[in-house]
Every structure is written in structure tokens, then in C-alpha cells.
Amino acid sequence: MEEIRILSPTAILGYGFPMESFTEGMKRKPHVIAVDAGSTDPGPYYLGVGKSFTDRNSVKRDLEIMIPVAIEAGIPVIIGTAGGSGGHPHVALTLDIVKEIAKEKSLSFKLAVIESELDKELIKQNLREGNIEPLFPAKQITESDVDESVRIVAQMGEEPFINALENGANVILAGRSYDPSVFSALAIKEGFDKGLAIHLGKILECAAIAALPGSGSDCMFGYLRKESFVLEPLSTLRKCTTLSVAAHTLYEKTNPYILPGPGGAINLHESKFTQISDNMVEVTGSKFVPTEQYFVKLEGVKKVGYRTISCAAVKDPVMISKIDSITQSVKERVINNFENYGIKDFFLDFKIYGKNGVMAMFDNLEEKVAHELLIIIEAVADTQEHADTICGFARSTMLHFGYEGRISTAGNLAFPFSPSDCKVGEVFEFNVYHLMKVDDPAGMFPVQYITFDKGN
Amino acid sequence: MKHKLKDIASVIRSKNSGPYELTFDIIFKDFETYQKVKQAHSINETNFAPLYKISKESIISLVYFDPAKAVKITIVRPLTSGALGETDVYGAQQHAPLMAMEIEF
User: Fold this and answer.
1) Dihedral over alpha carbons A435, A200, A225, A161 (to 10 degrees)
2) Contacts of A130 (CB under 8 A, 6+ apart)
């Protein structure tokens, strides 16, 4: 094989793509259609609660186009990080969609389902054996951290996909995957250079985001050859330029020259980006440098409670000038009020927009204050009922708080909504972000095959 | 001579690089300006850290990336994405201090 052609329909499964671009892609006779379905960007909630951050109908719409066309063309469809986070429930909800499509369209194909959620006992055993290390700046974990996690997934490399392809899978639905793996697996199986294949995968996983103008909901096409790869956007509205592709290499990475993943890193020190036509870019020189031992990345989250919020605004200039001391006094009053009642363990925060709200994660960054403020009162407690109590009490206390110099004595807050408080539900935090040494890169990721015959 | 970053850069952005890191990209308008900034090392740990009132040790990497005529700075996220106290889960609106940054070259 001299060339592997890869169609990436969309940046995230469910983000959609124009049919015209997809048809252009199929005209180029791809050897595989691959798509990344997840990200940790939307935060820890989705992995914890077992739901996807993408919408079911949107995901079904994309798969309903990709799967029948690929079966007709005799090429595989590979889906990574199913359901947004890749845990058991996330894989299950995407599997449910695939089954539905198979039935509705009466399709015949072999499906491989690869799981990535790990058994906690297995992780604890590896922890005892010294096989787990934190990924800076995360801290080392203990067995109790593992117990506290509600769900831990491992990121698979290309190896489990290669096994499934060798076993004749037409559609591969996988749990948490290193983003480029779904794009690079077939090429690596066919003996193409791993550095180029993974670098190509790194760009294709975001589809047309690497084009100009960028889009997360349009297709990108990749041609992998022995010494290089070429990127081509499939919409006439877009172009790949050396800059758009090089700039994309920066995106969401720690260091653009060294991109670590399962089993090693790609090194881009020698990479060259060349404009070969009006809309296509060729890349050469990217190298894969294996690590001595094979590591997979673990991601886990723990539950920290339940959240209730209340949104309220302030216009009074006297109140605005004293806002920090007012929120501090309200907080003290809330703590004092429920101390003996037995609600002690809670987190109460005031996010103050108009006064370093967006960048509050950095201390004392800005002095400027707006002429009106939006305050989000947030309570997180061990039960939803307690969160409601703390948030509601903080809100009513703040509404009628008699701060020094107060002139407006009817009420301190402007509520945009009735009811003013809103239950947000369960709250999770990342607590595992570690590397685990493995002997067999595919060993942690069990595969199940399902054969569909006219939809059944 | 002093230059405002927002006048000489075409892209100034921030984003998570995983839940534990925050990364900033500054892509310059032209290669000539980029080379001048790179040669003078006009963006460095010493003038970046005070913009965010962080310690230099919180900077994981500061890299000049020639193919994109860009400077990339990655720091330890002050709190893990989505942790209690979060205000920007994706980290996509933490770039504003860079827009006002003035550099010399």
C-alpha cells in the first residue's frame, strides 16, 4: 500500500458536518472513516454521572450517515471515546444508538466494542506494585483516592483498534481513546510510519478546526504516504495553510514540539509544513519516540456533593463598593446559623461578575469594578436538600443584609428569575490523572464482537 | 521600542491542556515581528508570571514555535478544571491580561 486515505467527518461525534463535504470525502475513496467522540474539556461531571456532553439525536444523525455509507464502501468506521468520556455507561449509550441504526436500516456488519473503564481493584493492585505515577501537576494517589473515585478510565493507544481490525470488525466502538489512535490505527497496522500517522491523527481529530476558516462541524481529509502526509479540507469555503496547520499543532497542548501519548511521544522538532496547492498542506519529518516502558493515562473523578445556585444582580453603588465585606459577613451568618443545627460541611461561594469574576482562579488580579454586578451564589453540600438550604439562606440573608451606609433598605438584590434558586445536581471533581505502566498495550481493554444480520 | 501585544499578534488565546494545565498561545501577524520577539526573548518567564500574579515555578513551559510564528506558555492550572471555585471550566477566557501586555524589542 502506497497511501492510506482517512476521512474525518467532524471534530466531535455529534457536532455534525455538511453532507456536501462528506460526499466529497467519499469520492476520494477513503480506507477508513474515523471520529473522536469525547473530551475532558467539559469538565468532570460527565465522566462521573455517566452521561454524554453531546446530544443523542445529534450523535445518531452523524452515525446514521457514516455507518451505512462505510459498510457499502467496505471500509471500517472507528469511533473513539464513545459517549464523551468512554466509561461503561458512555459506551453503552452509544452502542444503543448503533443498534438502533442497524435495525432501522437493516444493516449487516461486525461490530467491535472495546471497553476502557477499569476495575478499581486492578488499579489498587497496580498502585501497590508501583506501576502508577502522577502526571504533573496532579499529586500521587493512594488506595483511598481510588476507592473515592466513582469511575476511572484508561486511554487506549492504537493497539486494541488494530486487533479489532485484524478480527474483521466493520465498525469499532471504543471507550476512552488517545484522540489520534482512531485515525492512526489502520495506517500503523499497514506498516506506515508511526510518527507521521499519529501527527496526522492529532490534526484530523479536530477535523476542519485546522483549516481556515476553522470549523468544528466540517470534514477534513488526510492522505498518509511513506514519507509525508497531506491535509485537505473538503469544503470549498476552507483552505489548509501551513499556518493554520502549524497553529493547530499548538492547540490544547503543553509543548508543541513534544506530544506524549500511549507508548511514547511524537517529536516535531524536524517537522516541515509545506503548501502544495491552494488548499492543501504537506507535513514531513514528525517522529515517534517510544518510551522504555508502555504507559496509559488514567482519568478518574470523585463525587463531592450536590450543588444549588442562585443568580442575583446588584446596581446600588454603595453596596458595590462594599461587596467583599458583605459576602464575607453573609458567609459568617450562614455558618453561624446552621452550626448547632448540624449542617456544617458545605462549600459556599459568591462568583461576582463585574469584579474579577471570570478570572477569580487567579488571586487579586484586577482592581476594576463594573457599575453593576452579577452574583452567583453557589452552595455545594452532602445532599441536595442541604445545598438548597445553604443557598436559599445565603440568598435571603444577602437580600436583606444591613450593611454600613445602606440607603436602599427595601432589598439588596435584583433577581432575574422566579424561582430564584436552581438545583444543579451532583458535583464531581477530577481526582485521578495518572500514568499506569502496562505490559500489554491492549490487555486493559476487553473487546466484545457483535454480528448484525439485516439489523438483528 | 515598546509594542502592545494585541497590536502585533493575530491570535491571543487560552485553553485547558488537560484538566490540570492552562495554556496560552500568542501567534504573531508576521514572521519578521515573530523573529524580533524571539531574538529579544521579549516574552519570558520573568515578564509573564506577574501578569497573572503567579510564581515563575508555576510555568511548565514557555516555547517559541517557529512553524506557527507563535509563543506558547503553559502553566499549572490554579485549580483543577471543574473543582469547587471554578469560573472557567474550558479555560477559554483567561487570555485578557496578555492583550494588554507590552513587550520590548
Assistant:
1) 50
2) none
Q: Which residues contact B57 (CB under 8 A, 6 or more apart)?
A: none
For B74, name the nearest residue in chain A, comparing CA atoms only. A254
Is A361 in Cβ contact with B94 (below 8 Å)? yes
**What phi and psi, each to the nearest 5 degrees, are found at residue A117?**
-80, 125
Percent share of chain A, pLDDT over 70 = 100
Residue A137 to residue B60, Cβ atoms within 8 A: yes
Distance CA A255, CA A253 (A): 6
pLDDT band at A79 (very low <50, low <70, confident <90, very high): very high
Q: At what angle do helices A181-189 and A194-204 cross, to 10 degrees?
A: 150
Is B81 close to A40, i.e. CB distance below 8 A? yes
Q: Which chain A residue has its CA at the smallest distance from B94's CA?
A: A359
Cell of A305: 456533593
Cα gap A109→A73, rounded to integer Å: 12
- Could A361 and B88 be called an inter-chain contact, meaning their C-beta atoms sit closer than 8 Å? yes
Whole-angstrom Cα Rg for chain B: 14
Q: Is the pTM of this model over 0.90?
A: yes
Q: How many whole angstroms separate alpha carbon A20 and alpha carbon A67?
A: 17
Q: What pLDDT, on the 0 to 100 scale, is given for residue A1?
A: 86
Q: Search chain B and give the residue with CA nearest A41.
A: B90
- Contact state of A253 with B86 under an 8 Å Cβ cutoff: no
Residue A114 burial by Cβ neighbours in a 10 Å radius (0-12, 13-18, 19+): buried
Identify the residue whose cell numbers are 510564528.
B69
Cα A279 from Cα A24, distance rounded (Å): 14
Which of B17, B68, B93 lies nearest to residue A246, judging by beta carbons? Answer: B68
In sequence order, the β-bridge partners of residue A359 are none
Mean pLDDT of A400-428: 97
Q: How far apart are CA A327 and CA A315, in angstroms?
A: 15
